[in-house]
C-alpha cells in the first residue's frame, strides 16, 4: 500500500533517534514498555509517564538491564494519571521545565472494559482514556510546535486507538456535555467511545486540523490499532466478568506478543515513511498498514471532533 513490503518493517527499521526526546504514557508494561525500550535503544531520551511510581521505576530498571550499560539509555519518569486532568497538566508542566524539545508523544496508556465508575474529576474512567490524553497533549502543544520549527525536526503525536472504536455503532457517542459522555452505556460501548474520542481517533483528526489552521504543517498525528496483543489490558474484562478468567488463557492463543504489537506505534512514531507518504491523521492497523476510517471516525462534518474538543476544554477550565 505504501509501495514497500510491510513485512520488511521491523524494530530494526527504527532510525537513529539521537538528540530526540519522547514521551510514552503508560510505559511501564505491555505495549508502552516495548515502545519506551525501543525508542531508548535507538538513542532517544524517553520519558515514561505512569501512574504508579514503584511500577514505573521497576520497569525503567528492567529496560536498562535489557539494553545493557554500554548503550547508556536515557529513561526518565514523571507521574501521570489519566483519570486526573490536573495530573495530566502537571505532568506536562514538569516535562516542559526539564526539556526544551519534544519530538515524539505516544499516548499509549489505557484501560479496557472496566466496570462503570466515575474518576476523581467526575468523568467515567474509560472516557479518561480520551480526556486525560487530551489534557496532556494540549498542554504540550506549544513545545511540540516549537520543536517542529527547529531544523530537521520530525514531530509525531501517536494515539493508541483500537478496532474497538467500532463498538460505538452499538451506542451512539455524544460529547455535548459531561452528562452525555458519562451516560452508563454497556462496558464495551464505553471502551469504544473512549477509543473513538481520542485514541483516540477524533483527537488525531481534530489536532491535525487545528495544527494546519494555526500554520503548523510538519507535525504528524496518527491513530494506531496495535492488533490483539497479550498484555495486562485483560485486567479490565477480568474485573468486569471474573467468571471469564479461564477464557483469558484461550485469548493468549490468538494474541501476538507485545514486541509484535508495538511495531505499528513504533512505525508511526519513527518511520520516515510517515512524512514521505504524508500520512496526516492516518489510522494504522498492524503491521504499519493504512486503514480507512469508519464514517463515525472520519467525522466528515467535524461535529463529533468539535464537540469532543469543546467538552475537554470546558473540563480543563473547571478541573485542571
Ligand atoms: N492489548 C491489546 O490487544 C490492545 C488492542 C487495542 C488497543 N490497545 C491499546 O493499547 C494501549 C496499551 O495497552 P496495553 O495492551 O499495553 O495494556 P496494559 O498492559 O494494561 O498497559 C496499559 C498501561 O496504561 C497504564 N494506565 C492505565 N490506567 C492509567 C491511568 N489512569 N493513568 C496512567 N496510566 C494508566 C497502565 O499503568 P499500570 O501498569 O499502573 O496499570 C499501563 O502502563 C491501550 O491504550 C489500549 O487500549 C491494546
TrEMBL record:
Annotated protein name in UniProt: Short chain dehydrogenase
Family to which this protein belongs: Belongs to the short-chain dehydrogenases/reductases (SDR) family.
TM annotation in the entry: none
Keywords: NADP, Oxidoreductase
Signal peptide: none
Gene3D superfamilies: NAD(P)-binding Rossmann-like Domain (3.40.50.720)
Species lineage: Eukaryota, Fungi, Dikarya, Basidiomycota, Agaricomycotina
Pfam family, one: adh_short
GO molecular function terms listed in the Swiss-Prot or TrEMBL record: oxidoreductase activity
Amino acid at each position: 500500500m505504501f509501495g514497500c513490503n510491510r513485512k520488511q518493517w521491523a524494530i530494526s527499521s527504527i532510525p537513529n533517534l539521537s538528540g530526540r526526546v519522547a514521551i510514552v504514557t503508560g510505559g511501564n508494561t505491555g505495549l508502552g514498555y516495548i515502545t519506551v525500550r525501543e525508542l531508548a535503544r535507538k538513542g532517544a531520551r524517553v520519558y515514561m509517564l505512569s501512574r504508579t511510581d514503584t511500577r514505573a521505576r521497576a520497569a525503567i530498571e528492567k529496560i536498562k538491564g535489557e539494553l545493557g550499560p554500554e548503550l547508556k539509555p536515557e529513561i526518565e519518569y514523571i507521574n501521570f494519571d489519566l483519570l486526573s486532568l490536573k495530573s495530566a497538566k502537571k505532568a506536562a508542566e514538569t516535562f516542559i521545565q526539564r526539556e526544551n524539545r519534544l519530538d515524539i508523544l505516544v499516548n499509549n496508556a489505557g484501560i479496557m472494559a472496566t466496570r462503570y465508575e466515575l474518576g476523581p474529576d467526575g468523568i467515567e474512567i474509560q472516557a479518561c482514556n480520551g480526556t486525560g490524553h487530551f489534557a496532556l497533549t494540549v498542554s504540550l502543544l506549544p513545545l511540540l510546535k516549537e520543536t517542529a520549527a527547529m531544523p530537521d525536526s520530525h514531530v509525531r503525536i501517536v494515539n493508541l486507538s483500537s478496532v474497538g472504536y467500532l463498538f460505538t455503532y452499538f451506542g451512539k457517542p455524544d460529547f455535548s456535555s459531561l452528562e452525555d459522555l458519562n451516560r452508563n452505556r454497556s462496558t464495551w460501548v464505553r471502551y469504544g467511545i473512549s477509543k473513538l474520542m481520542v485514541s483516540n481517533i477524533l483527537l488525531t483528526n481534530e489536532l491535525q486540523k487545528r495544527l494546519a489552521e494555526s500554520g503548523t504543517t510538519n507535525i504528524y498525528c496518527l491513530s494506531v490499532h496495535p492488533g490483539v496483543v497479550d498484555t495486562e489490558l485483560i485486567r479490565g474484562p477480568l474485573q468486569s466478568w471474573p467468571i471469564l478468567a479461564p477464557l483469558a488463557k484461550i485469548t493468549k492463543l490468538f494474541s501476538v506478543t507485545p514486541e509484535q504489537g508495538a511495531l505499528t506505534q513504533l512505525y508511526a512514531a519513527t518511520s520516515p515513511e510517515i512524512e514521505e507518504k504524508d500520512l496526516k491523521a492516518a489510522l494504522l492497523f498492524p503491521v504499519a498498514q493504512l486503514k480507512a476510517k469508519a464514517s463515525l471516525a472520519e467525522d466528515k462534518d467535524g461535529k463529533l471532533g468539535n464537540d469532543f474538543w469543546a467538552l475537554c476544554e470546558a473540563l480543563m477550565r473547571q478541573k485542571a
